[in-house]
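Protein: Cobyrinate a,c-diamide synthase
Species: Halomonas salifodinae
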Amino acid sequence: MAKPTEAASAACPALFIAAPASGQGKTTVTAALARLLRNRGKVVRVFKTGPDYLDPRVLAQASGQPVDPLDLWMAGEADCRRRLYEAAREADLILVEGAMGLFDGEPSSADLAALFDLPLAIVMDVKGMAQTAAALVAGLAGFRDDVCIAGLIANACGSRRHRELIEGALPAEIPLLAAVPRDAALALPERHLGLVQAEEIRDDLEARFEAGAAALEAEGLAEALLALPPVTFAAPPQAATAPLPSLRGRTLGVARDAAFSFIYQANLELLERMGASLRFFSPLTDSRLPPCDALWLPGGYPELHAAALAANAPMREAIQGFFAADKPILAECGGLLYCLESLTDVDGETHAMLGLLPGRGAMRGRRGCQGMQTAELPEGPVRGHAHHRSVAEGTPEPIAFGRRQRHPAPGEAIYRERGLTATYLHLYFPDNPAALARLFASSPASACPTIETHSITTYSITSEEFQG
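Structure follows.
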């Protein structure tokens, strides 16, 4: 598609997919909507609210288009505005999937929808209720006067009569957009941190997307979506901005495979815009590192692949040699676990890891740490988030802690050993490109000395508090 000429604004039909709570089927419905319109030959641009790695890859497969996060705190309003504007210039429809319940968190899905005047479709799992579903939607619609509820999508609807009871109880101004049948073949598979990675179950997802699209096609939802009035998105300001710091001439090795895949596309794009050359490698299957000046070990699921990581001795030795040369390494969450001395996997088996950082990693059931935080790096603060169900014990004294968005307790620990910076936090690089340039440009070892190993008190926030 030819790039359109620059304009002061762009308009496109748009719909924000929200829910009264998590677990209502937002991603299932959003993916089915995207596939429905894609099957009609339409360009559908999908966005996911908040920090998320798994849902966007599922939605990207369903839509055939890249999926970016929209987060008013982590990425900022200007970043969100730019992405929506650019999408509106090329798309026939924009879909934004919300996070948690509509009004949960600060900022919430409702805040994002209100800021950009996006109409909302409420997805609700209606199993075990009928008229009460209508009451809940009416309550959501009346809670704030700056959001517009376009209708209800009743998920897991049991029968034609079930549908009729819900539709008959809805206020006249809130239509029933669709009733999605109760069918296990439509739901998306999950595991302990969310959805199963799209790459692992691509063919299975295709079948579920098509089944969901067929169900919504029968409801006549494609015509309703394309008939939505366009939403106008203003062009981002053209004011001069400071030039990006340079990583020109630097080559960055990026771990990317089934064990390490929690990577914002925005982070990769930024590094390339800064001039870095990216070389991807697999700690699971490769025997050596690509030629590079710095390493990024992102998050993922090392706990599901710990035996294979431990068995790949050549790769472990290559990374250990890179570390011994005092070259920069950034390890986030799963990358942090890989850098420890050992990791106890989901089956309770303990495996040797890289041993770059003293400590032991282990899974800890359903309890987890989640939340938005600012990493207080010596190179500068960088916003990001934490989401894990593991614990690191016997680690060194942190050089700093993450600063939580609102909660007063110290956030995730930030460790530094020689050129290694390791933390449970997933960083959003565009928040502070200069800090990332300093971190990857040269060894940060001089920023803080190595400190004796000991056990530390850990702070955690339960899943119910994860926006704290």
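Remarks: Confidence is low (pLDDT under 50) at residues 191-195, 445-468.
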